[in-house]
Design a protein that fits this description.
Layout lengths: L1 H5 L6 E6 L11 E6 L1 E8 L2 E7 L5 E8 L4
Antiparallel strand pairs: 1-2, 3-4, 4-5
GO biological process, one term: hydrotropism
InterPro entries: MIZ1-like_pln
Pfam families: DUF617 (PF04759)
């Protein structure tokens, strides 16, 4: 809840939140965050992708997840 309140006014971006020892970090540690709008695309049972969109709806970052059949 503390982290969500800290990034409440941020609509998109990344950064560091200092001194978040209430979530298990040491008092001098920082928490890295990334907040953005993601579009999820499912290609098949074994593949899906997440595209981070900027406010102009251009793709900024792509994350691809692929399952491996064993």
């Amino acid at each position: 809840m503390k982290v969500l309140k800290a990034v409440d006014l941020i609509s998109m971006g990344t950064g560091l939140l200092p001194g978040f020892n209430g979530i298990g970090a040491a008092p001098d540690e920082e928490l890295v965050y990334m907040r953005a709008m993601f579009e999820r695309v499912i290609g098949s049972k074994e593949f899906e992708a997440f595209y981070m969109m900027n406010p102009d709806f251009n793709v900024e970052l792509s994350i691809y997840l692929m399952g491996v059949l064993v």
